[in-house]
Amino acid sequence: MIMGDCGAFSYHKLDVPPYSPREILEFYEDGQFTHGCSVDHIIFQFDRDLKGMEAYRDPKDPDAGAKTKRRWDITLDNADAFLKESNQMTTPFAPMGVIQGWSPGSMAKAAHQMVAMGYDYLALGGMAISAADTIQCAIEEIRTQIPDYVKLHLLGFGKIDQIPNFLDYGIASIDTTSPMLRAFKD
User: Which of 11, 112, 129, 155 has a CB 3.0–4.6 Å from the CB of 145, allowing a cystine?
Assistant: First the structure.
């Protein structure tokens, strides 16, 4: 498995991702990736206590809810285009829909919609800096909305010592730069 990711963290300050689904697919095909993440728009705000699609609120930013919903919509629209265009690839390729959300419910709804689009491999995004129990809370809600056959990937999962706590959630893969960063810093 050689997985590609569009690097949403690198453009998180932009209003829209700088790459189209087609451009990322061309990059994945040129690089001979076997798996690749759809073009997402990272959502850093996460409140595990929000229910369903209840809007994210920030007293310092009255538009916070609309901004997070817009990023969520962009991510889903890109996932749909990405999956459809991935069928044009000439090499074997497994498209991965990236889940973004501001709550367990919004992530679960995104996952459900991606499975309805045709995805059978999803990647949980935007949670790299979250505590392990917060990630578990999101995964538990996601798993209630998707079939067991759907594989899950954890993007930027640096909690290597926590892996045993995630075995029951059907996690198929993870990626992390933590060991490499530790090696450089040691």
Answer: 112
